[in-house]
Amino acid sequence: MAKVFGHIAGHPVGSCFANRADLRAAGLHSQRIAGISGNPREGADSVVVSGGYSTDEDFGDVILYTGHGGNRDGRQVGDQSITAPGNAGLLRSELEGHLVRVIRGAGGDSPYSPAVGLRYDGLFRVESHRSVWVNGFLTFQFRLVAVDTGRVPSDVREQDGEEYVTPFHGDEAHSPVPRQPSQAQRAVRKSAVTQRVKDWHEGQCQMCLQFLAVPGGFTYSEGAHILAIGRPYDGPDVVENVLCLCPNCHVLFDHGGRYLTDELGVVDGLTHEQIGELRTVRAHRIDLRYVRAHRRRWVAEG
Amino acid sequence: MAKVFGHIAGHPVGSCFANRADLRAAGLHSQRIAGISGNPREGADSVVVSGGYSTDEDFGDVILYTGHGGNRDGRQVGDQSITAPGNAGLLRSELEGHLVRVIRGAGGDSPYSPAVGLRYDGLFRVESHRSVWVNGFLTFQFRLVAVDTGRVPSDVREQDGEEYVTPFHGDEAHSPVPRQPSQAQRAVRKSAVTQRVKDWHEGQCQMCLQFLAVPGGFTYSEGAHILAIGRPYDGPDVVENVLCLCPNCHVLFDHGGRYLTDELGVVDGLTHEQIGELRTVRAHRIDLRYVRAHRRRWVAEG
After folding, report:
1. Phi, psi at residue B286, to the nearest 5°?
2. Distances from the Cα of A215 to the Cαs of A31, B90, B256, B264, in angstroms?
3. Most buried by CB count within 10 Å: which residue of A211, A268, B209, B221?
4. Whether A251 contacts A186, CB under 8 Å
């Protein structure tokens, strides 16, 4: 059964369940016992936070979630592996930006847990992970950050005469920070379409041919729309309008540092000299209309 | 006078002003006449949208904003230049992710304009730009996307039986899209501290030594925290904890594909072999405590 990322229709944030069987029947978490629903190929789509691991920490909008393995009756008695299915699934979701449903269960001593049963608490992203040594055994701790828990995003208030904002999204979600612009420089759109293109190219950049390999057996790449989505460009989210690029080539391509010829030559936007050729695979057809419309953003032509 | 990015204390979104002089006195827009407050070094911090350029288009949460130059009495009579101060300022803000205050003025035919005077309408990011030919003259059109206009972020509603969401942030802000995870894969934190480090290195990656040059005379780089901000790492936002990296090295560094030795050697996280040395400048001191704490995320040591 293919993973379904995001909210599940009919079960809004705050929905409660008596037990794991009901949760599973609702489609929120496919596993009967395991805390992580995930695999290395698709990623993880949901986790249950139930206090089973003593190293879990729950700050509400930020959860430090312990990977699976090596645990017996709440005690760490062996190493965890980053290639174990659930852990590799969370790592894949970290790299791909998949959102993970968080279900909190009763038990443990977290103030955020429900009193009884299980509660769907919304979508989190896997921001990062680290190795943690517990009783001398290797474990992994994933940092989950709230993205959509159905609440109003900002809580602006006066504090010591200065204006503070508690961002709901983002990295400082658990602590008030002085109000100042703190913004992603780059936002990369994700979709089933971009994922398909990345899969075809196995993460290899179509321009510079680099693989960005990280531990755990994954390659990082980005799905780049040739003609940007949204006004004024109105490029479509179809595979014929998407390239698999490394972040560097993606930045250059989006800001006029690279464009393509009709023969799919890669051109340096500063010198207007061709510096290479776009790598293609048979399955991945590219529509020249989008290539030309992108080029017209940067190059004066008829 | 140094540019102030973000909201101005005492003047919340929706504040109204009778004229440009009052707007200037409030600190919202430093220019008496020009529509763009900006320069190539610092970026643009505010724009006034007043319908002076016929090619401006206002969709509410998305504004297509025409650069300055070559315009007489609302008619394009000459080319614009991307190196003109305001245009270069907007380009800098696009590359750096600076948020721009948008002030709408009466005039023009936009339904989003105030009936009289000027109104502060919140913070937008400069998502992209393109060349547009108007009467045979080159102009630039910047795409501004609402980030913080003081409204509730999402408007979930039923439409044709499917659940749709109108994201307030992000790229599809002006049109409803099917509800599905659409998430930045990478979020890069911005601060005065990261900007200072990037300035010291003039945008050169400290690991691979690349410059990512884009048209307009700018180099793209990212400020990377060595020890990540926020729980559980709690790395500080200080120059001693920040590197200037290209996006590729930043991805690798954040996911264990690169780490540093105490001598600031650059190590491949898969092979654990040293592949280079971190480039440093005299002014930029790096604190080894953060280097070690980052390394401990990936490497088993005592």
Report:
1. -115, 135
2. 26, 38, 6, 21
3. B221
4. yes
- Tell which residue, B71, B92, B108, B64, has the closest CA to residue B214: B92
CA distance A78 to A72: 9
Alpha-carbon gap, residue B122 to B11, rounded angstroms: 10
**Chain A contacts of B171, Cβ < 8 Å?**
187, 189, 229-230
DSSP letter string, B143-181: EEEEEESSS-SEEEEEETTEEEEEESSSTTTTS-EE---
Nearest Cα of chain A lies from the Cα of B281 at a distance, in angstroms, of 23
pTM check: above 0.90: no
Q: CA-CA distance, A132 to B300, in Å (whole number)?
A: 9
**Residues of B with CB below 8 A from A153's CB?**
152-153
Backbone region of residue A161 per phi and psi (left: phi > 0; alpha: psi in -120 to 50; beta: other values) = left
| Angle CA B62–B66–B68, to nearest 5 | 145
Q: Return the H-helix or E-strand segment holding A134.
A: strand A118-134
Please, what is the Cα angle at A184 between B130 and B93, to 5 degrees? 45
**What are the chain B neighbours of A230 within 8 Å (beta carbons)?**
62, 143, 171-175
Using the beta-carbon criterion (under 8 Å), do A269 and B190 form an inter-chain contact? no
Q: Residue A169: is its pLDDT beyond 80?
A: no
Which amino acid is residue B149, in one-letter code? T
Phi, psi of B13, deg, nearest 5: -55, 135
Q: What six digits make up the tokens of A145? A: 């950050």
Region B47-68: mean pLDDT is 88
Tell me the C-alpha distance between B35 and B86, whole Å: 8
Angle at A223 between CA B193 and CA B187, to 5 degrees: 20
Which chain A residues are Cβ-neighbours of B5 within 8 angstroms? 180-181
What are the φ and ψ backbone dihedral angles of B128, each rounded to 5 degrees?
-165, 180
Which DSSP letter does residue B98 get? -
* The total number of residues written for chain B in this structure: 302
Summarize pLDDT for B79-129 with one digit per residue, the tens: 999 889 999 999 999 888 889 999 999 977 788 888 889 999 999 999 888
Q: How far apart are alpha carbons A204 and A213 in whole angstroms?
A: 10
User: Using CA atoms, how far apart are residues B176 and B180, in angstroms rounded to an integer?
Assistant: 12
| Chain segment B194-206, per-residue pLDDT in tens | 889 999 999 999 9
Cα–Cα distance for residue pair B173/B191, rounded to 1 Å: 25
> DSSP state, A69?
S
Model confidence over B252-301: pLDDT tens digits?
999 889 999 999 999 999 999 999 999 999 999 999 999 999 998 887 66
pLDDT band at A176; cut points 50, 70, 90: very low
Measured CA angle at A13 (ends A7, A18), to 5 deg = 105
Nearest to B248 among A247, A255, A298 (CB): A247
Write the pLDDT tens digit of every residue in B229-246.
Answer: 876 778 888 999 999 999
Count H helices and E strands in chain A, helices first: 5, 20
* Residue recorded with tokens 């204390």: B9
